[in-house]
Structure prediction request, 378 residues.
Amino acid sequence: MSFNTFGHLLRVTTWGESHGPAIGCVVDGCPPGIALDAADIQLELDRRRPGQSRYTTQRREPDEVKILSGVFTDGSGQQVTTGTSISLVIENVDQRSKDYGDIATKFRPGHADFTYLSKYGIRDYRGGGRSSARETAMRVAAGAIARKVIAGVTVRGALVQVGPHGVDRSRWDWAEVERNPFFCPDPVAATAWEGYLEGIRKAGSSAGAIIEVIAEGVPAGWGAPLYGKLDQQLASAMMSINAVKGVEIGDGFAAAALTGEANADEMRMGNDGRALFLANHAGGILGGIATGQPIVVRFAVKPTSSILQPRKTIDSAGQDTEIVTKGRHDPCVGIRAVPVGEAMMALVLADQKLMHRAQVGRDGPVIASFGLEGAEED
Prediction:
Protein backbone atom coordinates (compact mmCIF):
# COMPACT_ATOMS: atom_id res chain seq x y z
CA MET A 1 0.00 0.00 0.00
CA SER A 2 1.35 3.41 -0.91
CA PHE A 3 0.44 6.85 0.43
CA ASN A 4 1.21 6.21 4.09
CA THR A 5 3.25 9.43 4.26
CA PHE A 6 2.14 13.06 4.37
CA GLY A 7 3.91 16.40 4.72
CA HIS A 8 6.71 18.14 2.83
CA LEU A 9 9.58 19.21 5.08
CA LEU A 10 7.99 17.71 8.20
CA ARG A 11 7.02 14.25 6.98
CA VAL A 12 5.02 11.64 8.88
CA THR A 13 4.73 7.98 7.92
CA THR A 14 2.32 5.83 9.93
CA TRP A 15 2.17 2.03 10.02
CA GLY A 16 0.25 -0.79 11.67
CA GLU A 17 -3.24 -2.27 11.82
CA SER A 18 -6.08 -2.15 14.34
CA HIS A 19 -5.57 -5.74 15.51
CA GLY A 20 -1.86 -6.10 14.79
CA PRO A 21 0.76 -6.25 17.57
CA ALA A 22 1.48 -2.51 17.42
CA ILE A 23 0.99 0.76 15.57
CA GLY A 24 3.65 3.37 14.99
CA CYS A 25 4.99 6.28 13.00
CA VAL A 26 8.19 7.92 11.87
CA VAL A 27 8.45 11.72 11.99
CA ASP A 28 11.19 13.06 9.72
CA GLY A 29 12.31 16.68 9.42
CA CYS A 30 11.80 17.82 13.01
CA PRO A 31 14.42 20.49 13.82
CA PRO A 32 17.09 19.59 16.40
CA GLY A 33 17.30 20.92 19.94
CA ILE A 34 13.58 20.81 20.79
CA ALA A 35 12.82 19.45 24.26
CA LEU A 36 10.80 16.24 23.85
CA ASP A 37 10.05 13.23 26.00
CA ALA A 38 7.34 10.57 26.02
CA ALA A 39 5.28 12.49 28.59
CA ASP A 40 4.79 15.37 26.13
CA ILE A 41 3.29 12.96 23.61
CA GLN A 42 1.34 10.94 26.17
CA LEU A 43 -0.51 14.05 27.29
CA GLU A 44 -2.16 14.36 23.87
CA LEU A 45 -2.68 10.61 23.43
CA ASP A 46 -4.60 10.42 26.70
CA ARG A 47 -7.14 12.90 25.34
CA ARG A 48 -7.87 10.60 22.38
CA ARG A 49 -7.60 7.28 24.26
CA PRO A 50 -10.65 4.96 23.96
CA GLY A 51 -12.74 3.64 26.82
CA GLN A 52 -12.90 6.88 28.85
CA SER A 53 -16.70 7.21 28.76
CA ARG A 54 -19.73 5.20 27.70
CA TYR A 55 -20.02 7.41 24.62
CA THR A 56 -16.88 5.95 23.00
CA THR A 57 -15.63 2.46 22.23
CA GLN A 58 -14.95 0.35 25.33
CA ARG A 59 -11.75 -1.09 23.87
CA ARG A 60 -9.23 -0.68 26.69
CA GLU A 61 -6.02 0.58 25.16
CA PRO A 62 -3.57 2.49 27.40
CA ASP A 63 -1.92 3.90 24.26
CA GLU A 64 1.44 4.09 26.02
CA VAL A 65 3.91 5.59 23.58
CA LYS A 66 7.61 4.76 23.34
CA ILE A 67 10.21 6.91 21.59
CA LEU A 68 12.65 4.61 19.79
CA SER A 69 14.88 7.14 18.04
CA GLY A 70 15.52 10.76 17.26
CA VAL A 71 16.11 12.11 20.79
CA PHE A 72 19.19 12.42 22.99
CA THR A 73 19.90 13.69 26.49
CA ASP A 74 21.93 16.90 26.26
CA GLY A 75 24.53 18.24 28.69
CA SER A 76 21.91 19.71 30.99
CA GLY A 77 20.15 16.37 31.34
CA GLN A 78 17.22 17.35 29.12
CA GLN A 79 16.03 15.06 26.34
CA VAL A 80 15.96 16.91 23.02
CA THR A 81 15.42 16.13 19.37
CA THR A 82 18.54 15.40 17.32
CA GLY A 83 17.22 16.41 13.88
CA THR A 84 17.10 12.76 12.77
CA SER A 85 14.02 10.59 12.31
CA ILE A 86 11.83 10.23 15.40
CA SER A 87 10.31 6.76 15.62
CA LEU A 88 7.28 6.17 17.87
CA VAL A 89 5.46 2.96 18.73
CA ILE A 90 2.31 2.00 20.65
CA GLU A 91 1.56 -1.63 21.44
CA ASN A 92 -2.00 -2.93 20.92
CA VAL A 93 -3.06 -4.80 24.05
CA ASP A 94 -6.85 -5.19 23.94
CA GLN A 95 -7.70 -6.66 20.54
CA ARG A 96 -10.73 -8.97 20.33
CA SER A 97 -10.44 -10.28 16.78
CA LYS A 98 -13.06 -12.98 17.40
CA ASP A 99 -15.72 -10.25 17.42
CA TYR A 100 -15.19 -9.90 13.66
CA GLY A 101 -15.38 -13.57 12.68
CA ASP A 102 -18.99 -13.25 11.52
CA ILE A 103 -18.14 -10.49 9.01
CA ALA A 104 -14.99 -12.02 7.53
CA THR A 105 -16.77 -12.57 4.21
CA LYS A 106 -19.33 -9.74 4.43
CA PHE A 107 -18.96 -6.08 3.53
CA ARG A 108 -20.05 -3.46 6.07
CA PRO A 109 -22.12 -0.76 4.31
CA GLY A 110 -20.37 2.58 4.60
CA HIS A 111 -17.03 0.97 5.51
CA ALA A 112 -13.87 0.40 3.46
CA ASP A 113 -14.28 -3.40 3.34
CA PHE A 114 -15.54 -3.52 -0.25
CA THR A 115 -13.10 -1.00 -1.67
CA TYR A 116 -10.02 -2.48 0.04
CA LEU A 117 -10.83 -5.93 -1.33
CA SER A 118 -11.56 -4.44 -4.77
CA LYS A 119 -8.17 -2.72 -4.85
CA TYR A 120 -5.83 -5.21 -3.14
CA GLY A 121 -7.61 -8.56 -3.42
CA ILE A 122 -7.14 -9.06 0.31
CA ARG A 123 -8.39 -7.28 3.42
CA ASP A 124 -7.90 -7.46 7.15
CA TYR A 125 -11.46 -7.78 8.46
CA ARG A 126 -10.36 -7.56 12.10
CA GLY A 127 -11.51 -4.09 13.03
CA GLY A 128 -10.86 -2.81 9.52
CA GLY A 129 -7.10 -3.34 9.64
CA ARG A 130 -5.38 -0.32 8.13
CA SER A 131 -8.67 1.51 7.50
CA SER A 132 -9.48 1.53 11.24
CA ALA A 133 -9.53 4.80 13.18
CA ARG A 134 -6.95 3.13 15.43
CA GLU A 135 -4.37 4.57 13.01
CA THR A 136 -5.23 8.10 14.17
CA ALA A 137 -3.47 7.52 17.50
CA MET A 138 -0.19 7.94 15.65
CA ARG A 139 -1.37 11.17 14.06
CA VAL A 140 -2.01 12.50 17.55
CA ALA A 141 1.44 11.34 18.67
CA ALA A 142 3.07 13.06 15.69
CA GLY A 143 0.92 16.13 16.28
CA ALA A 144 2.35 16.45 19.78
CA ILE A 145 5.79 16.84 18.20
CA ALA A 146 4.43 19.36 15.70
CA ARG A 147 3.06 21.48 18.55
CA LYS A 148 6.64 21.78 19.80
CA VAL A 149 7.79 22.99 16.38
CA ILE A 150 5.15 25.75 16.33
CA ALA A 151 5.64 26.87 19.93
CA GLY A 152 3.68 30.10 20.40
CA VAL A 153 0.79 28.96 18.21
CA THR A 154 -2.28 27.73 20.09
CA VAL A 155 -4.29 24.93 18.45
CA ARG A 156 -7.65 24.05 20.04
CA GLY A 157 -10.57 21.96 18.87
CA ALA A 158 -14.15 21.43 19.96
CA LEU A 159 -17.15 19.32 19.04
CA VAL A 160 -19.79 21.76 17.78
CA GLN A 161 -22.51 19.39 16.57
CA VAL A 162 -23.63 15.83 17.33
CA GLY A 163 -26.25 14.44 14.95
CA PRO A 164 -28.66 17.35 14.36
CA HIS A 165 -27.85 19.03 17.68
CA GLY A 166 -25.42 21.97 17.62
CA VAL A 167 -23.89 24.25 20.24
CA ASP A 168 -25.06 27.75 21.14
CA ARG A 169 -22.05 29.93 20.31
CA SER A 170 -23.17 32.59 22.78
CA ARG A 171 -22.28 30.05 25.51
CA TRP A 172 -18.88 29.14 24.01
CA ASP A 173 -16.33 28.55 26.79
CA TRP A 174 -13.00 26.90 25.97
CA ALA A 175 -12.63 25.83 29.61
CA GLU A 176 -15.72 23.64 29.23
CA VAL A 177 -14.04 21.56 26.54
CA GLU A 178 -11.98 19.65 29.10
CA ARG A 179 -14.85 19.33 31.61
CA ASN A 180 -17.13 16.98 29.67
CA PRO A 181 -16.64 13.77 27.66
CA PHE A 182 -17.54 15.45 24.35
CA PHE A 183 -14.91 18.22 24.04
CA CYS A 184 -17.97 20.51 23.95
CA PRO A 185 -17.58 24.28 24.59
CA ASP A 186 -21.28 24.65 25.53
CA PRO A 187 -22.22 23.03 28.88
CA VAL A 188 -25.93 23.05 28.06
CA ALA A 189 -25.39 21.27 24.74
CA ALA A 190 -23.07 18.74 26.42
CA THR A 191 -25.82 17.79 28.85
CA ALA A 192 -28.34 17.39 26.02
CA TRP A 193 -25.92 15.22 24.03
CA GLU A 194 -25.70 12.76 26.93
CA GLY A 195 -29.34 11.80 26.56
CA TYR A 196 -29.24 11.81 22.78
CA LEU A 197 -26.16 9.57 22.52
CA GLU A 198 -27.38 7.26 25.25
CA GLY A 199 -30.43 6.57 23.11
CA ILE A 200 -28.26 6.09 20.01
CA ARG A 201 -25.98 3.68 21.89
CA LYS A 202 -28.80 1.58 23.34
CA ALA A 203 -30.42 1.35 19.90
CA GLY A 204 -27.21 -0.11 18.49
CA SER A 205 -26.89 2.80 16.09
CA SER A 206 -24.46 5.71 15.63
CA ALA A 207 -24.39 9.46 15.00
CA GLY A 208 -22.25 11.88 13.02
CA ALA A 209 -20.61 15.07 14.24
CA ILE A 210 -18.93 18.34 13.29
CA ILE A 211 -15.57 19.36 14.77
CA GLU A 212 -14.12 22.88 14.73
CA VAL A 213 -10.37 23.48 15.07
CA ILE A 214 -8.92 26.96 15.60
CA ALA A 215 -5.26 27.98 15.47
CA GLU A 216 -4.29 31.32 17.02
CA GLY A 217 -0.91 33.03 16.79
CA VAL A 218 -0.12 31.94 13.22
CA PRO A 219 1.97 34.73 11.64
CA ALA A 220 0.84 36.37 8.43
CA GLY A 221 2.68 34.90 5.48
CA TRP A 222 2.61 31.15 6.13
CA GLY A 223 1.29 29.24 3.12
CA ALA A 224 1.73 29.67 -0.61
CA PRO A 225 -0.37 30.56 -3.65
CA LEU A 226 -2.02 28.17 -6.09
CA TYR A 227 -0.85 24.57 -5.53
CA GLY A 228 0.58 25.05 -2.06
CA LYS A 229 -2.29 26.94 -0.45
CA LEU A 230 -2.53 26.71 3.32
CA ASP A 231 -6.27 26.08 3.16
CA GLN A 232 -5.69 23.42 0.49
CA GLN A 233 -3.20 21.63 2.73
CA LEU A 234 -5.55 21.85 5.71
CA ALA A 235 -8.52 20.56 3.73
CA SER A 236 -6.46 17.62 2.48
CA ALA A 237 -5.19 16.82 5.98
CA MET A 238 -8.65 16.90 7.56
CA MET A 239 -10.21 14.91 4.73
CA SER A 240 -7.59 12.21 5.28
CA ILE A 241 -8.99 11.50 8.75
CA ASN A 242 -11.15 8.38 8.89
CA ALA A 243 -14.90 8.97 8.35
CA VAL A 244 -14.52 12.65 7.37
CA LYS A 245 -16.89 13.58 4.53
CA GLY A 246 -16.69 17.37 4.42
CA VAL A 247 -14.27 20.22 5.25
CA GLU A 248 -14.75 23.98 5.30
CA ILE A 249 -12.51 26.96 6.04
CA GLY A 250 -13.92 30.02 7.78
CA ASP A 251 -17.56 30.52 6.79
CA GLY A 252 -17.17 27.70 4.28
CA PHE A 253 -20.38 26.75 2.51
CA ALA A 254 -22.28 29.48 4.38
CA ALA A 255 -20.29 32.05 2.39
CA ALA A 256 -22.29 31.09 -0.69
CA ALA A 257 -25.35 32.75 0.87
CA LEU A 258 -23.55 36.05 1.57
CA THR A 259 -23.17 39.11 -0.63
CA GLY A 260 -19.77 40.44 -1.58
CA GLU A 261 -19.97 43.25 0.94
CA ALA A 262 -21.11 40.92 3.73
CA ASN A 263 -18.36 38.40 3.01
CA ALA A 264 -15.52 40.95 2.74
CA ASP A 265 -13.17 40.98 5.71
CA GLU A 266 -12.79 44.77 5.90
CA MET A 267 -9.54 46.27 7.16
CA ARG A 268 -8.33 49.28 9.11
CA MET A 269 -4.98 50.34 10.48
CA GLY A 270 -4.46 49.44 14.10
CA ASN A 271 -2.83 51.76 16.62
CA ASP A 272 0.28 49.61 16.49
CA GLY A 273 0.76 50.22 12.76
CA ARG A 274 -0.44 46.75 11.83
CA ALA A 275 -3.39 45.76 9.69
CA LEU A 276 -6.59 45.16 11.68
CA PHE A 277 -9.30 42.93 10.19
CA LEU A 278 -12.90 43.73 11.15
CA ALA A 279 -14.16 40.20 10.44
CA ASN A 280 -12.82 36.73 9.67
CA HIS A 281 -15.16 35.16 7.12
CA ALA A 282 -12.10 33.79 5.29
CA GLY A 283 -10.98 31.77 8.29
CA GLY A 284 -7.58 33.44 8.53
CA ILE A 285 -6.42 32.58 5.00
CA LEU A 286 -6.44 34.73 1.84
CA GLY A 287 -4.93 33.60 -1.46
CA GLY A 288 -3.69 30.46 0.26
CA ILE A 289 -1.60 32.52 2.73
CA ALA A 290 -2.23 33.18 6.43
CA THR A 291 -3.48 36.67 7.31
CA GLY A 292 -2.42 36.57 10.95
CA GLN A 293 -6.01 36.07 12.10
CA PRO A 294 -7.21 32.87 13.78
CA ILE A 295 -7.33 29.98 11.31
CA VAL A 296 -10.72 28.27 11.51
CA VAL A 297 -11.40 24.80 10.07
CA ARG A 298 -14.48 22.61 10.46
CA PHE A 299 -14.96 19.03 9.32
CA ALA A 300 -17.93 16.67 9.28
CA VAL A 301 -17.63 13.08 10.46
CA LYS A 302 -20.15 10.50 9.27
CA PRO A 303 -21.87 8.05 11.66
CA THR A 304 -19.80 4.99 12.59
CA SER A 305 -20.31 2.24 10.00
CA SER A 306 -20.04 -0.65 12.49
CA ILE A 307 -23.49 -0.86 14.11
CA LEU A 308 -25.74 -3.50 15.67
CA GLN A 309 -28.70 -2.63 13.47
CA PRO A 310 -29.03 -5.20 10.63
CA ARG A 311 -28.19 -3.76 7.20
CA LYS A 312 -28.49 -5.17 3.70
CA THR A 313 -25.18 -6.08 2.04
CA ILE A 314 -23.40 -8.69 -0.07
CA ASP A 315 -20.64 -11.18 0.71
CA SER A 316 -17.38 -12.03 -1.05
CA ALA A 317 -19.19 -14.78 -3.00
CA GLY A 318 -21.54 -12.21 -4.50
CA GLN A 319 -24.59 -13.31 -2.50
CA ASP A 320 -27.16 -10.96 -0.98
CA THR A 321 -27.16 -11.10 2.81
CA GLU A 322 -27.52 -9.00 5.96
CA ILE A 323 -24.89 -7.88 8.41
CA VAL A 324 -24.77 -6.98 12.11
CA THR A 325 -21.41 -5.78 13.42
CA LYS A 326 -20.61 -6.97 16.92
CA GLY A 327 -17.73 -5.76 19.04
CA ARG A 328 -16.86 -2.43 20.65
CA HIS A 329 -17.50 0.66 18.58
CA ASP A 330 -17.94 4.40 19.04
CA PRO A 331 -21.60 5.47 18.91
CA CYS A 332 -20.14 8.79 17.72
CA VAL A 333 -16.60 8.53 16.35
CA GLY A 334 -16.56 12.33 16.03
CA ILE A 335 -15.93 12.70 19.77
CA ARG A 336 -12.40 11.30 19.65
CA ALA A 337 -11.80 13.03 16.32
CA VAL A 338 -11.32 16.35 18.16
CA PRO A 339 -7.69 15.70 19.24
CA VAL A 340 -7.07 14.11 15.84
CA GLY A 341 -8.19 17.30 14.09
CA GLU A 342 -5.98 19.35 16.38
CA ALA A 343 -3.03 17.11 15.53
CA MET A 344 -3.56 17.46 11.79
CA MET A 345 -3.81 21.24 12.13
CA ALA A 346 -0.54 21.30 14.10
CA LEU A 347 1.22 19.05 11.59
CA VAL A 348 0.20 21.18 8.61
CA LEU A 349 1.21 24.40 10.37
CA ALA A 350 4.58 22.99 11.45
CA ASP A 351 5.25 21.92 7.87
CA GLN A 352 4.22 25.37 6.61
CA LYS A 353 6.45 27.10 9.15
CA LEU A 354 9.49 25.14 7.97
CA MET A 355 8.70 25.80 4.31
CA HIS A 356 8.16 29.51 4.98
CA ARG A 357 11.50 29.68 6.79
CA ALA A 358 13.23 27.88 3.94
CA GLN A 359 11.85 30.30 1.32
CA VAL A 360 12.06 33.71 3.04
CA GLY A 361 14.62 33.06 5.77
CA ARG A 362 12.40 33.77 8.77
CA ASP A 363 9.41 32.35 10.66
CA GLY A 364 7.24 35.47 10.68
CA PRO A 365 6.07 38.01 8.10
CA VAL A 366 8.64 39.91 6.06
CA ILE A 367 6.82 43.19 6.74
CA ALA A 368 5.74 43.52 10.37
CA SER A 369 3.95 46.86 10.11
CA PHE A 370 3.10 49.70 7.77
CA GLY A 371 4.56 53.19 7.88
CA LEU A 372 7.99 51.87 8.83
CA GLU A 373 9.97 51.41 5.63
CA GLY A 374 11.87 48.16 5.62
CA ALA A 375 10.42 47.11 8.97
CA GLU A 376 10.96 43.43 9.57
CA GLU A 377 10.02 41.01 12.29
CA ASP A 378 12.48 38.50 13.70
